[in-house]
User: Which sequence fits this backbone?
C-alpha cells in the first residue's frame, strides 16, 4: 500500500502545480491590456517554472525498503513564477493617459493566443492527473474489498 500512497502524493502535486499554472495564465489574460501597474509600466507576462520534488527522507525500515522504488518519482513542484522580460508592443495613441512623449503606449507582452494555448495545455494536464487520481482511488478501494473478502 505504500506505493499507492506515493502515487497519490505525486498526482496531488501535479494537480496543485497545474492549478497554479491555470491561475497564472488567467491573470495574464486578465491583464492583457493593463498599461499601468503599481510597479510602473505595463503588466509583464508571468511564467510558471516547474521542477521535480526531492524525495522525502525515509525514516522507517519498511519505508527504507521501498525508497529505491520511489526516489525517482517524487512529484512536481512550482520552482518559481517569473516575469517575462520581453518588450510589449507599442501602439500610437497620443490621447491615451499612458502615452509617452512621442504619443506611443506600451502594452503588455501578453499574447492571448499563446495564453489560451497554455491554458489548454494546463487543463489537459490537470485532467490527466484527475484521471490518474481516480484510477488510484479505484485500485485502493478494490484492494480494500479484496482484503475484506479474504
Assistant:
Amino acid at each position: 500500500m505504500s506505493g499507492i500512497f506515493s502515487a497519490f502524493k505525486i498526482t496531488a502535486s501535479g494537480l496543485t502545480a497545474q492549478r497554479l499554472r491555470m491561475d497564472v495564465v488567467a491573470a495574464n489574460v486578465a491583464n492583457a491590456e493593463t498599461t499601468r501597474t503599481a510597479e510602473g509600466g505595463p503588466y509583464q507576462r508571468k511564467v510558471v517554472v516547474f521542477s521535480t520534488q526531492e524525495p522525502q527522507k525515509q525514516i522507517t525500515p519498511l519505508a527504507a525498503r521501498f525508497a529505491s522504488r520511489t526516489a525517482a518519482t517524487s512529484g512536481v513542484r512550482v520552482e518559481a513564477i517569473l516575469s517575462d522580460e520581453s518588450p510589449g508592443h507599442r501602439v500610437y495613441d497620443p490621447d491615451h493617459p499612458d502615452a509617452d512623449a512621442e504619443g506611443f503606449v506600451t502594452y503588455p507582452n501578453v499574447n492571448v493566443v499563446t495564453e489560451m494555448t497554455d491554458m489548454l495545455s494546463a487543463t489537459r494536464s490537470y485532467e490527466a492527473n484527475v484521471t490518474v487520481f481516480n484510477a488510484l482511488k479505484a485500485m485502493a478501494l478494490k484492494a480494500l474489498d479484496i482484503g475484506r473478502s479474504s
